[in-house]
Design brief:
This protein has one domain. Strand 3 and strand 4 form a beta hairpin. It is built from one helix and five strands; from the N terminus they run E-E-E-E-E-H. The two termini are about 25 Å apart. By secondary structure, the protein is mainly beta. Strands 1, 2, 3, 4 and 5 form a five-stranded mixed beta sheet that branches.
Length: about 90
Amino acid sequence: IEVFATLDYHPPKCKHCKGKQIKYDFQKPSKIPFIEIGGFPSLIHLKKRRFQCKSCRKVTVAETTLVQKNCQISEMVRQKIAQLLLN
């Protein structure tokens, strides 16, 4: 099962200089493995919004609790692996 999703929200303040950020572009979709759904493996194709600061020009990427920063393995899969290792 494949799910196509887009992560987009209002631009936050810049983490570096606290300046105003603008919506910049989308990142190439990440392929994030997810837990099985109905016995079928699932994959999320997630496009994340990028933001650029108008002051310092640094670019940041939208963040989600689905995956850790700079990671492409979902938290649900991490928890499932940890659970299987403990059993």
